[in-house]
Amino acid sequence: MPPVILDRYEDFEEYARSAALVTYKPEFYKGPFLDDPGRVRRVTFTAIGVNINGIVLSFMYKLGYDDMYDATLAWEDQAIAIENQIMDMVTHLQAECGLVQGSLASRPTMGESLAIRP
Questions:
Q1: CB under 8 Å to 62, separation ≥6 — which residues?
Q2: Do 68 and 39 touch, CB atoms closer than 8 A?
Q3: 32 CB contacts (<8 Å, ≥6 apart)?
Q4: pLDDT at 115 over 80
Q5: pLDDT tens, 5-15?
Q6: The pTM is what?
Q7: C-alpha angle with apex 13: 8 to 18, nearest 5 degrees?
Q8: CA distances from 43 to 29, 51, 72, 86, 101 (A)
Q9: What residues contact residue 30 under an 8 Å CB cut-off, 6+ apart?
Q10: First-residue to last-residue Cα distance in the chain
Q11: What pLDDT, in 10s, does the model give residues 15-65?
């Protein structure tokens, strides 16, 4: 069963407290230079194994640059602010529910399977 995608972090945080496992997967900006500092541009949180009325579900919350865009800031300042906010969320969830970096392996989607076939 695919995860339930949530729109609010507060809702995700509530489900994460009762999850069997909570994971996060950060995505980084890829700069043109090798010495560019890798800035977090998006993070995907997943709460796995949440028991809701006898049904075990997973919940997902994604947060990234597009969700937090502020036209009044320069790009570098905004990238730093967004990375700081995301890392604050990671730190908070680590303290609350034992967050693990990574994701669970899953079967490929139908589109991925069709793209792989010759």
A1: 5, 42, 43, 44, 45
A2: no
A3: none
A4: no
A5: 999 999 999 99
A6: 0.78
A7: 135
A8: 12, 24, 23, 7, 10
A9: none
A10: 28
A11: 999 999 999 998 887 766 667 667 778 899 999 999 999 999 999 999 887
Q: Domains in the chain, start-ordered, CATH in brackets?
A: 4-116 (3.30.720.90)
Identity of the amino acid at 8: R
Quick one: three-class SS letters along 83-118? HHHHHHHHHHHHHHHCCEECCCCCCCCHHHHHHHCC
Rounded Cα distance, 48 and 105, in Å = 13
**Do residues 17 and 50 lie in contact, with contact meaning Cβ atoms separated by under 8 Å?**
no
> For 25, what's the count of Cα atoms within 13 Å in the CB-facing half-sphere?
10
